[in-house]
Amino acid sequence: DSNGKNRLSLVGGLGSFSQYTGGIRASISSKRFFFSIDGFGQSAVNDFGYRTLLGSNEKLSNAQLKGGSIMGQGAYLISDKNVLRLSVWYQQYYREVPAALFEAASVKNYNNSSLRLLLDWNKERVNNTWYAKGSFISNEMHYEDSLSLLNTRNATYQYYFEGGWKHRINANSQLIVFVPVQASWMVTGDTAENKQQVKAAIAAAYDVKYFHGRLDVALNGRAEMINDIGVLLPGIDASYSLTHWFLLCANVQRTYRAPTLNELYYDPGGNASLKPEEGWNEDAGYTLKARLSPNISLYHDLSAFNRVINNWIVWFGGAIWTPHNIATVHSRGLETENKLQWAVDKHWQLHIGLNTSYIIATTQSSYITNDNSIDKQIPYTPRYNGQLNLGFSYKHLYFNYNHTYTGYRFITTDESEYILPYNTGNLQLMYDAHVGHYPVSVSVQCNNVWNQQYQVVAYRPMPGINWLAGLRFTLL
Questions:
Q1: Tens-digit pLDDT profile for residues 190-219
Q2: Which of the ends of the chain has fewer CB neighbours closer than 10 A, N or C?
């Protein structure tokens, strides 16, 4: 739009347990230039009721949250298909950590501030695209617990650069080559001791299509140096369209993940002895997209996966969590995604969706002698998961009911302790309207409508039934 467009919108919300949110967004754009700024703030007391291990009813304390964020984005069209973008994001949060069910009291809290800068350039030609992006991220954390005399400060900083080239060889094949470089360092405590991690890689992917595009094969490889460790990560994936509505796909990939600086050195909880995760992933499946009638469409996706990972990193703990390595983990399972949509008429639309997963993730070998973990499910990985979405839209009204089932999760490597399965239900209602010429959006959510008592993390109770209402008003 050569005349430019301006936008200004306000958003606010309130909910159970003294939740309050508010935000503002403004944007200006012209034919070559775009700029927007977003500000958001929230606070909550989170004083919901729960049942103690002794069976008495209490209210959660030391659970307040308050904070906010601001984000600015700008883009400039240097010339046709030659774009420069800049994003700046900053957030500041204060969180109190309530007592776990096995703790008598808690005064733990932490302050977290983060700054992210991203500069992105992209230039397209007929058969070539060049791009470059660079970023800087800083994350500072102050953790305090006067009961255990802990007062720690951790700061991580990261520079990242990536340059790449995409070349379309012909109508059926293309080549991508890119070089990512990342330098990170961490300062812990008052000693200002500097921990560093440098990653540099060269990566390429070649994609080619056969049989009029029905068969798509992609080869990829990545050679990476992490400090003084070199790794080569090859992979291949392929897909084949049996019909216009039925697609087969498969993928094999070698993986390697070095522990992050936080996992290694965070105070308290870091583990400097961690080893990198490495192994192979394989998955295969199919996707079905069918129109059963002019008004009814069906989407169904099923995939099976198999992963064998050495030095799997998993977190254990009570009041303070610490990462540990499991020597070898074998993870395999099935995942499905299903959705049925029915356009009854031009106003009414119904939808139903069901996603499921069945995952077996067991320890195959351990660094601990006789720890009884062999062939046992690793902690916090449920075998069964399911999620149902059911709802409708009518003109400017949207309604959805979400139901989630989470199965048994063991919290010890020998399966001696576990968290019971739970069901939660959530309702969402949204309505879009106009006040004069100004768009207005109203939303209401009711979470945990069945008032279930459950835990996502052991000995950390979750809130019962609660609600949240929001309003968005666009002025320009």
A1: 555 689 999 999 999 999 999 999 999 999
A2: N
Residue-wise DSSP of 366-396:
-SSTT-S-BTSBPTT--SEEEEEEEEEEETT
- pTM value is 0.89
Q: How confident is the model at residue 1 (pLDDT cuts 50, 70, 90)?
A: very low
d(CA 108, CA 102): 15
**Residue 316 CB contacts under 8 Å (≥ 6 apart), including other chains:** 322, 324, 379
Structure tokens that stand for 255 in this block = 């993986």
- Cβ burial of 467 (10 Å; 0-12, 13-18, 19+) is middle
- In sequence order, the 6+-apart residues with CB closer than 8 A to the CB of 201 are 179, 180, 181, 222, 223, 224, 225
Distances (CA, A) of 383 to 249, 301, 333: 24, 19, 9
**pLDDT at 2 (0 to 100):** 39
Structural contact between residues 295 and 342, judged by C-beta atoms closer than 8 angstroms: yes
Please state, in angstroms and as integers, the Cα–Cα distance from residue 472 to each residue in 66, 93, 106, 209, 475, following that order: 21, 23, 37, 46, 10
